[in-house]
Inverse folding.
């Protein structure tokens, strides 16, 4: 199976969490004998080739980060400006990732993505949903690999099934919401570890203002 | 109550009608026509969270919108649609709203959210074209909750008279 993967993140590839997820997913895919080609929409010079690949292949995955409850505007522009109408049938699947960990955070984006393939002349191949990915960019290698490994497993699964419609893919999202006890534990650990981690990253990035600054 | 109306649609008349409707109720509603402004896509750099808190790294016309949103109670987006959702021009002005939030996290209404940098903001949408009403209602509800506000609802331009003011 040959898969076209489009990275719909507006963030530069070097810093893109979605790109790291795609790389892990592709490793799993390739380990089962499938091949893939990846296009990165944050690089406008790749749009023409990405349009062409989108229109001419039959297995397509769009990987995207959740931006304000749905697809990033950059990806919407790419799709709205597709130069021609599809004539060849294709299966369009999605990898939707977010920073927040609860599954409920991804449902509005999922609702949109479910409606999209039919409007682009494609068949819906399912959505692989997962949150808790904000840390990929700032995590150390060991922690990052731990976050990314499950995507390699899903790459292997996709190579076998050709879609994300399996019960395994549905379970990938994890907990829909967090029970109260878990929420309390998360906030406690955030105050002890998480907040400090963000403050350290801010300092490394050259931030000289308080993180809750009100410039306007 | 201060309301900002952001027009991203080619036809500004629905936005003007909405402004008149809100003004008729004695509310302060400012209309900003973004169609002539230089507004780029959010590139997800997170500088507004972690490098220059509250300040967007993209130097374009969105800065003047952010300055107004920081002191507003409600935001109406008047947008075209594509694929049943906001078109990319409408979504683009919403994607840039991130500096309204802090990096810091909390649980609100049982879900993890960013804390608010300023006050709460209610969000509503008036859309032209073939919008998916259910999807747009859902999106309004969730986007408002992220900003600590409540949804003003999604309305087709044909039903603009049904928009509830003074929410």
């Amino acid at each position: 199976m040959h898969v076209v993967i489009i990275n719909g993140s507006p963030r530069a590839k070097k810093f893109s969490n979605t790109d790291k997820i795609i790389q892990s997913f592709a490793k799993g895919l390739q380990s089962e004998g499938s091949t893939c080609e990846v296009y990165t929409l944050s690089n406008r010079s790749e749009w023409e080739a990405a349009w062409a690949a989108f229109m001419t292949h039959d297995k397509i995955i769009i990987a995207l980060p959740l931006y304000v409850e749905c697809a990033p505007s950059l990806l919407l522009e790419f799709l709205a400006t597709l130069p021609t109408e599809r004539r060849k049938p294709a299966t369009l699947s999605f990898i939707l990732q977010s920073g927040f960990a609860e599954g409920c955070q991804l449902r509005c984006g999922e609702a949109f993505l479910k409606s999209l393939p039919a409007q682009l002349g494609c068949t819906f191949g399912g959505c692989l949903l997962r949150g808790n990915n904000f840390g990929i960019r700032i995590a150390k290698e060991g922690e990052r690999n731990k976050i990314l490994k499950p995507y390699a497993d899903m790459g292997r699964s996709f190579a076998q099934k050709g879609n994300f419609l399996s019960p395994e893919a549905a379970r990938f999202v994890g907990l829909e919401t967090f029970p109260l006890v878990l929420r309390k534990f998360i906030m406690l650990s955030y105050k002890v570890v998480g907040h400090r981690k963000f403050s350290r990253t801010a300092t490394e990035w050259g931030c000289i203002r308080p993180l809750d600054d009100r410039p306007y | 109550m201060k309301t900002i109306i952001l027009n991203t649609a080619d036809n500004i008349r629905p936005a003007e009608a909405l402004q008149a409707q809100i003004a008729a109720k004695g509310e302060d509603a400012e209309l900003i026509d973004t169609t002539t402004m230089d507004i780029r896509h959010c590139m997800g750099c997170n500088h507004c969270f972690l490098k220059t808190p509250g300040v967007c790294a993209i130097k374009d016309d969105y800065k003047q919108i952010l300055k107004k949103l920081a002191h507003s109670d409600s935001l109406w987006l008047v947008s075209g649609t594509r694929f049943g959702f906001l078109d990319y021009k409408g979504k683009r002005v919403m994607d840039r709203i991130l500096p309204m939030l802090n990096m810091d996290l909390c649980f609100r209404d049982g879900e993890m959210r960013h804390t608010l940098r300023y006050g709460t903001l209610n969000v509503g949408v008036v859309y032209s074209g073939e919008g998916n009403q259910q999807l747009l209602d859902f999106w309004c509800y969730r986007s408002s909750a992220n900003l600590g506000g409540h949804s003003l609802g999604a309305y087709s331009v044909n039903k603009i008279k049904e928009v509830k003011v003074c929410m």
Summary: The mean pLDDT of chain B is 96. The first strand of chain B starts at residue 2 and ends at 7.
